[in-house]
Amino acid sequence: MAMTATKTSYRTCPLCEATCGLEIVTQGREIMTIKGDAQDIFSQGYICPKAYSLKELHEDPDIIRQPMVRYGEEWRIVSWDEAFAHIEQHLMPLLQRYGRNALAMYAGNPNVHSLANQLFIPTLIHAAGTQQLFSASSVDQLPKQVSSGLMFGTSLSVAIPDIDHTDYLLLLGANPLVSNGSLMTAPDMRGRVRRLLQRGGKIVVIDPYRTRTAQEASEHYAIRPGTDALLLFAIVQTLFAENLLAPGCLGEYLNGLEQLRELAQPFTAEQVAPRCGIAAETIRTLARELAAAPRAVVYGRMGTCTQEFGTLASWLVDVINILTGNLDRAGGALFPKAAAGARNTSGVGGRGRGIGYGRWKSRVRGLPEFFGELPSSCLAEEIETAGDGQVRALITIAGNPVLSTPNSSRLQAALGTLEYMVSVDIYLNETTRFANVILPPAPILTRSHYDITFYQLATRNIAHYSPPVLAHEEGMVDEWVILLRLAGILSGQGAQVDPALLDDMAMTTLIKREVTTPGSRLAGHNVKELLAMLQPRTGPERVLDFLLRSGPYGDGFGAQPDGLSLTMLEQHPHGIDLGPLQPRIPEVLRTPSGKIELAPPLLVADVARLQVALERPAEGLVLIGRRDLRTNNSWMHNLHVLTKGKERCTLHVHPDDAARLQLCEGTIAQVSSRVGTVTLPVEITDAIMPGVVSIPHGWGHGLLGTRMHIASEHAGVNINLLTDETQYDMLSGNAVLNGIAVTVTTRDIVSPPTVA
Length: 756
Known about the structure:
CATH architecture of the largest domain: 3-Layer(aba) Sandwich
Shape: globular
Number of domains: 5
Number of strands: 30
Strand content: 15-25%
């Protein structure tokens, strides 16, 4: 018998924000090799260890490949029709009895890596008709989206460091050599950082931990967790006090400069230094260096978002870039112009409606929605608390909130009381074990890919489409079909609805919205004619083709024959380079004033709270998280290639604290907060500042009822048994995951880590 021929495919890695290009060789359904695509227009052959894990992920025997329904403690494999019939039979009467807000939805981080889910989850949300919407955004990034939306007009108008051309990079709470960039899509961050230093540039890292990035940097200063906004305000105050302002051509587009000057006055370097742990003269030096550098940029990420003043810290990052003249110029912070799906390229540039927020509030605590979502920290109480609108059913989509949201022991208990739960997921994990039905999408390499979101955050304008590497096997169902069938049930059309009809309806709605948008390239076009020109494509490919063709580089359905389309991207398997980032102000702005809002009222009102914190005495021992290059989220712990080697779920403690607490290397420590306790091994290191301890996120796999064998063998402990759902950023509702007050004691046992 002749051997099956090998096939070489090119696709973008879907496992993190770096969007590295891969070259994958397959033989039949077997993956032979995975390596970096040397011809990829963005990553140029670079990949990290996560890319190699795609082979193991494809072969993982724990992955769910057929729908499952839970009967008591028993899981049974059923047909797709049976699964959807079960959902209709049990979920719809519940909603008819209690109302639409009895249903909550939670979307996890992997959704942003899925073309289908980015495009079709909105259809499901619309059909659900509930205000109880939650996602991983309010766990790690919402403050940056809120501050960017208030200043520039849309939630993804995030100014991106032009790292390839800057002379001076100030990083706060960011570790891009491990995260591969975050809200900054840039493959090979190690190479980019080293090239910055080789051309004579300077990198300064502000972080309570000497991270891998800090080890490569010119300077590292340890900061007390949760005080980044104070440090940034002191830099702003210094810029004003020493007349170092140089906004340049941005000046005519600024609202609120004098109000900002007044707000900054109390935050002098001398006042801030004792609170943040960085000397006053160092703070002034940072301000002077930023002002003097030919091209400089400030970048803050996870550490600046997951704290009490996350939105203020995110705002002040952009404020400093503006005051030093480094916003919207090469080598500073620039706004990408994405090829598809960006709100800041739609309609008439230079002015817009701005962002909406607070249109409804959470039922129990009264926290406002942002961008259609409520804070994930509220989910448990919305399930627990009786009354009108109590959550009684839940749909999770590629999410594991039991491990990723604060005080997860409370959420676990709450999930156990739900009347019904559906999970769209590939694993029986710590969250989906509570589901009544699990709907597994087709394997990752059988799906097409395009990074709608990450190309809106990239350090270079590119477009790269990846067709499926492998064909479907019998019984596999695409994510978008699953979502549309769920939408059909929730909209009252039944479990047997034809997803093709819903696909056509969603596509028609999108076209109608575009042709009626003032300033659109397609304004006034005939909807039916445009729909016909997209044939025979369906599903995500049809939507993507429309977004590309109607976007800023698109062919305009014939108006620009050499413009972008999905057909063109299919002919360029290594991607298309659309050029470096360019200045976009005022065109990028979508604020009602048509200006950059330096002092949005919502942020101004919160400064008084920050002033109170300036006088607050420092906490005792506090907890922060950390991450590793070989991991991203909890589901990646079920792959041997990413979990092998030294155990990584350990408690990092400074030698001074270890001596004071009588902790020894490798012994078991008990860590307790207001909400919980965990025990895990101690690792003593001077990389962490005194008074701070660290546990990595995403672990805690030793729970009954899961089927993730490798993860269970490397269970670790869940840091979110210690984080507190009552602590959140008042502006955005984002969870506080850093700076949690804890106590650490020794245990007279030597055993594997356990969860209490």
